[in-house]
Amino acid sequence: MIGILYFLVVILANTLGAISGMGGGVLIKPIFDFIGAHSVAAISFYSTVAVFTMSIVSTTRQVSSGRKFNWKIVSGVSAGAVLGGILGNVTFEVLLKLLTDEKMVQLVQIILTIMTLLFAFLYTRYEWRSFHFRSVVAYIICGLLLGFLASLLGIGGGPINVSLLMLMFALPIKEATIYSICTIFFSQLAKLITIACSTGFARYDLSMLIYIIPAAIIGGIIGAKFSNILSAKRVTFVFQLVVLIVLLINIYNGYQIICWM
After folding, report:
1. Around Cβ 7, how many Cβ atoms within 10 Å?
2. What is the rounded CA–CA span in Å between residue 187 and residue 52?
3. What is the DSSP letter of 207?
4. Rounded to an integer, what distance in angstroms lies between the CA atom of residue 185 and that of residue 188?
5. Residues in contact with 261: Cβ distance below 8 Å, sequence separation at least 6, in sequence order
6. Cα dihedral sign for 185, 46, 216, 226?
7. How far apart are CA 38 and CA 32, in angstroms?
8. What is the pLDDT of residue 189?
9. DSSP secondary-structure letter at 172?
10. Residue (of 73, 80, 84, 178) closest to 135 by Cα position
11. N or C end: fewer C-beta atoms under 10 angstroms in the chain?
């Protein structure tokens, strides 16, 4: 029953994630938290696998459709995302050890996620001034921050990816969503490698991947298709709608944890 529920959640989340450039984890993580069937570490792992799978499918579809990439941006941001992904996962494991109660770790994740959600919504809603950074150093710093937050929060990429790319490099939203998905691929790859080389996968119920991986593939295919046909205005609408929904879910989850404490 839980597997089927996860399957449906991942399809919906990854479809919206591929369209908006958020990666799906920003929905998967809080919804899985709400369901409460697995530990914080397991949920973070499942979200990572789902988003990583989606990023492969979505990027492949974008390339095959003839989409052009600025490979200087892709390589710079992705290089930073790899390092950021490793640092984020290390920080997550440190938090699990320091805050022996998993609920506290979950609360830290929720607070940071809410902060990124508010930034993302306000930026796209009020169209704040953008910068035009074009140096490799700027690309790497951007990727480092995005990879760190994506890995630490267990949300794959989240709304801050698109918003920060638009802010730093003055990219239109549809272009930012594409580079966001590329960044997600490298940050989540780094996280999975870090897990494999440190704690390993034995502590997770890997049977859930039978539901999660196929759902992630389906969501990535559907999302990439809609991403190509929707206008920038529609993509912005989807982005803002998802941000508001996830914001409400996180606020509710945070409230429940505070009441439990």
Report:
1. 19
2. 9
3. G
4. 6
5. 103
6. negative
7. 8
8. 87
9. -
10. 73
11. N
Q: Using the predicted structure, report yes or no on whether residue 8 has a pLDDT greater than 90.
A: yes
Name the token pair of 121: 């919504």
What are the residue ranges spanned by the domains of the chain?
A: 2-260
The pLDDT tens digits for 96-149 are: 888 878 888 889 988 998 998 888 888 888 877 788 898 999 999 999 998 898
Rounded to the nearest integer, the mean pLDDT of the chain is 87
CB under 8 Å to 70, separation ≥6 — which residues? 179
How far from the centroid of its chain's Cα atoms is residue 10's Cα? 12
Q: How confident is the model at residue 198 (pLDDT cuts 50, 70, 90)?
A: confident
**Token duo for residue 169:** 């490099």
Task: Please check whether residue 20 is in contact with residue 177, taking contact to mean a CB–CB distance below 8 angstroms.
Answer: yes
Q: For the chain, state the CA radius of gyration.
A: 17
List Cα–Cα distances, 20 to 5, 27, 103, in angstroms. Answer: 23, 12, 29
Tokens of 232: 């920038």
Contact 88, 148 (CB under 8 A): yes
Within 8 A by CB and 6+ apart from 237, the residues are none
- The whole-model pTM stands at 0.82
Half-sphere exposure of 70 (CA within 13 A, CB side): 14
Quick count: other Cβ atoms within 10 Å of Cβ 136?
14
**Which single residue is written with the structure tokens 């919804």?**
31
Of 86-100, 106-120, 152-166, which gets the smallest average pLDDT?
Answer: 152-166
Buried b (16+ CB within 10 A) or exposed e, 84-118: bbbbbbbebeebbeeeeeeebbbbebbebbbebbe
DSSP code at position 231: -
CA distance linking residue 12 with residue 8, whole number of Å:
6
Cβ atoms of residues 85 and 59 within 8 Å: no
